[in-house]
Amino acid sequence: MDEILLLAAVALLAVVQSVFGVGLLLFGTPLLLMAGYSYLELLYVLLPASATLSTLQLVFDHSVRPREVGGYALWVVPAILVGTVTSLLYLTGLDIRIPVAVLLAVTGVLRLSRWTRQRLQTACVAAGRPALSLIALAHGLTNMGGGLLAVYAGALSDQKREVHRTVAVVYLLFAGSQLVALYVLHGPPTPDPRLLMSTVGVAVPYLLLGRRVFQAMSDRRYQAAFSAFMLCCAGVLTWQAAQ
Asked: What radius of gyration do the chain's Cα atoms show?
């Protein structure tokens, strides 16, 4: 994948993540693997871009209290570090596209009904923060926990800002923790135009399009779009796994 195609892919996925909170890692990981990137190379490219975009979302779209971030970090950071270190040293990225696709498809269908969506919300509230530890561990091992995080956050609330804020906070903790592990184990990145393009390239589509689309949606339309997004994710991941 040359620089122009990489930038186009990152820009498109940045718009998706601007609206739904996930996208760059969920879709970018299998996409770059298919394009010939090693797992280590794609981490150097995608993680800074994802962290940058989540930071922009929290700065421009949400107010987050340090105590809230600390509460999430307590459950997320240890698990994501364990998963990331294990992946980098021993597994080099597990492929869980099919299991994630099945979960996304089932959840997307269940969310179409208000009654079943309320049951999902009850289940996620009962699972609580420990569920985030399992999601973080899966993300550290595979770089594809964004779909699981979307399921969790989307079931917790009917308000788009709450869903979006939860995903942005946790996703930033994911990316930040992974970057720490990556740089400790393999060193900081060498100068690479792909890294600069992907990191800077997320800001423009977020500011010009993604943020506006998110703000224009009502809570009701966002919930419907979020369910459709899950179904689309399931289809794309299944297609990628079959290649």
From this structure: 17
